[in-house]
Amino acid sequence: MLAVPLSLVVQVIDRARLSPVPLSPPGHRGLLYHGRALHSVWDAASLLGWPDPGNPGMILLLDAGGTTAGVLVDRVRALGEEEGPVRRPHWDALLAPQEEG
Asked: Is the pLDDT of residue 99 over 50?
């Protein structure tokens, strides 16, 4: 289970259509057109080196270092609803655009 600080959550989107991007990096599932903008959508399990979770149906739009990016999730839990250990990755560093050079 992964935890996301509420301050990073922009929106929760249920069952959105993604447009695939040829030659995209591992973990990139496609682009989401939402709110008159394009957002990259990532599979967090793949980015963290975990087994493929299948086909999660929800997208969390997160503020990732000043850029909005999506993360695929299979469920959003209520505050205080926990079961088992929780991992808290540094989302802004994980999803922020990487500078080339």
From this structure: yes
